[in-house]
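call fold(seq) -> C-alpha cells
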Amino acid sequence: MLLKRLLLPSIVLIAACTHTTRDMTPESPASAVNTPQPPVAKQVPYTVTSPNGDRVDPYYWLRDDTRSKPEVIDYLTAENNYTTAMLAHTQASKDLLFKEMVGRIQQDDSSVPYLKNGWWLYTRFEQGKEYPIHARKRGSLDAPEEVLLDANLLGAGKGFYQIGFWQPSPDGAQLVYAEDLSGRRQYVLRFKNLQTGQLWPESIANVEANTVWANDNRTVLYIEKNAQTLLGFRVRKHVLGTDPANDPVVYEEKDSTYYMGIGKSRSDRFLWIGLNSTVATEWRYADANDPNLVFKTVLPRERDHEYQVQDHGDEFYILTNWQARNFRIMRAPIAKAGDRANWVEWVAHRDDALLSSMTVLRDHVAINERSGGLPKIRVKTIADGHSELLAFDEPAYSAFTGANAEYDTATLRIVYTSPQTPASTYDIDLKTGVRTLLKRETVLGGFNRDDYVTEFRFAPARDGAQVPVTLLYRKGLKRDGSAALYQYGYGSYGAAMSPAFNDKVLSLVDRGVVYAIAHIRGGEEMGRAWYESGRQLQKKNTFNDFIDVTDFLVREGYAAKNRVVAQGGSAGGLLMGAVANMAPDRYRAIVADVPFVDVVTTMLDESIPLTTNEFDEWGNPKQKAFYDYMLSYSPYDNVAAQDYPAMLVTTGLHDSQVQYFEPAKWVAKLRATKTGTSPLLLKTNMEAGHGGKSGRFRRLEEVALAYAFFLDQLGIAVESAAGDGFEGGKDSADSADGFEAKHAH
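ret:
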C-alpha cells in the first residue's frame, strides 16, 4: 500500500447541452468510400521462448529500446498519419470540445496554501500558460510572494516538461527539484540557492522524483534508478556543493520485486526508506538530525505482510494487515517496535471496512477507510480514544485527508468531491468540529451542480458478486433504454476509482450521455478481498465484472445496447483489450490508452521496466499455472477473426510503464486478423510517456480527440453547449451547496 498504485490513469471525459442523434448504420461513420488505406505492418516471425512453451510473434520487430530505428519510427508515423486522415471529419468537433474544456478552467488559479516550517507553500497558474508556478510566502498569506520555480520558463521550447517534485530545505534557504524532459520518468535533480536565486553547479540524472532533506539543510537523500529496468534500487546521500559521483550509498535493495520510496516524518524527527512489493512492505528509519543517517528496520519484510508507520512521541503507530485482512492500527514503543509482542491494538480490524492510510497529528489520528464501496474519513482522539466518522450527504463521493504538513496542530485538512461537486478543500477544527471551506474548484461555463443526478448502484455479476457502479447523468434524462453510455474502469493493483468530479466528462453528459464508473474487482472499493479476487488466477473476474455492469445498465434502461462506449488506460487498457476480445458486441467504440496488452511476453522479460515488481499482481509466467492462465486472457494473444468495436488506441513513445511496442503490436495484429469495417486507429505521442502530453491545455487535446471519436461513433452531433457559455459565466462555487499506486501499468 505504500508508494504503489500512484500512477493511475486519469478518468478523462467531455461537455455541452443539447444533443442530436442520427440514424445508426451498420457501417461506422469513418468507413466511407474514399477511406484511406491503413499501414500494413510486415510480419517477421520471432520465437518467444519460455519454460512452458514457445510462441511465434510476427510483430516483435516493432520493439526498439533505443526508440530510434527508422523502420519503427516510420511505421508509427504512418499510423499517426492514418489516424489523422481517418479522423479528419471530426476535427471541427475536436476543436469545439477542446474549447469547451479549456473554457471551464479558471486559468488564474492557485492551490490552497499549506504551512510548513513557517512558510506558506502553494502552486498557481496564470492566464494562458501551460505550466505551474511554485511559490511561497513567509509567515503570513499577506506577505510578499517569492517564486521558487516557474515551469513555464523552464519548459519553454521543450516538447515535454514536468517538475515531478520540489521541496525547500527546512530553513527555507535551499530548494531541490526534479525535472522530466521526456515523459519517461527518469528525473534530473537540480538544486537552487533561494538566497541568491542561483543554481548549484551539480545535477544528478536518472533518479526517482522524490527526495528528502535532512535537518542540517545541506544533505539530501535521493533514489538512483537502474538505467534499464528503471527501478529505484539505491538510496544515496548528497551534500550540497560536492561532486555527485562521490555520493555514498545509504541503502541498496537487492530484490528487484520491490519498489522504493523515501520521505520524512510529519514531526521532522525521522527520515524514512519505504520498500514495497505487491504483498509485502518494509520500513526503515533514521534520525533526521544525525548526519551519519544510520537506518534501522522497523519490522523486517515478510510475505503477505504490509504495513505503514508514523511516529508520535516515543511510539510508532503501525497500520498493518498482520492478522487483519482489512488492516488495523497498532501502537508500539519505537525502541521495541521490531518485536510484535510489544504491539498493542489501537484500532481493531473490521470485516466491513478497509483502513487504507492514516494521518497522525499531535492529539488526533485521521484514518482514511473504505466501506460500502465509498471512501470515508474517521477521526480518533489519542487521549481518550473517542472516534467519529465524518458525515457527507451525497450518494456517491470521495473524501480523503489533504495536505497536512504540520504535526503540532488541531486542524485537519480534507478534500471532498463527488461527480456533481468540484474538489472542495476544508479545514476542520478537531476540537469544535467546525468545517471551514477554504476553496471549491471553480468551473466556468455556466456549470450548475443541480443540473445533474448522481446514483450509486450495485450490479449483479455472473457469480453473484455485487459490483458498485457510480452514475452521473443530466437531470431529466429518461431511463427508456435509448441513451448512450460511457463506461470507465480500471480494476488492478487495489486502486480504487473513487467517485470524483471531472469537469471534462460534462462534455459527454451534457450531450445526453450517461457516465458510469464500474468499481470492478481488482480494486479495493469493497475491501481487500475485492482486490484479491481480481488478481493473479482470479483476474478474469475483473473483465467479467465490467461486461456484467454493461449488461446491467442496459437492462435497467440507462442505455441502448448498441450505444455503449468504453475507455480505460494502462491496466485499464488491459481491461479494454480483454473485453474487446470477450464481448465485442457489447461496445460501439473503445478507447484504450497506453494499454498493457502483451501480458505474457512482457512478464517473461525481466529487462522490461517494472516486470519483476508485477509478479504478485499478475503471476510469474515461468510457472505453468500462471503462464496458461495469463495466456488465456492476454489481449494480444487472443485476437480473433471477429468483428471488433471501433477502436482508438493511444501510446507514448517514451512510456516507462507500458512500453509503446505493446499497443503498436496489438493494433498491427488486430488489423491483420479482425473482420468487419469498424475503424482501428493507433495514435502515438512521439514526445511523451505514460501520462501523455505535458501542460494543462495540451493534455486536453488528447481528451478532445478521444471524445470526438466517441461522439462520432455514437452519432451525436457536437454543437455548441447550453448558453454558448464558455467565455465565462457562473462558477461552481455560486451554485454548489455546502454540501487522494507507483509504477503500476
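The chain has 13 helices and 39 strands.
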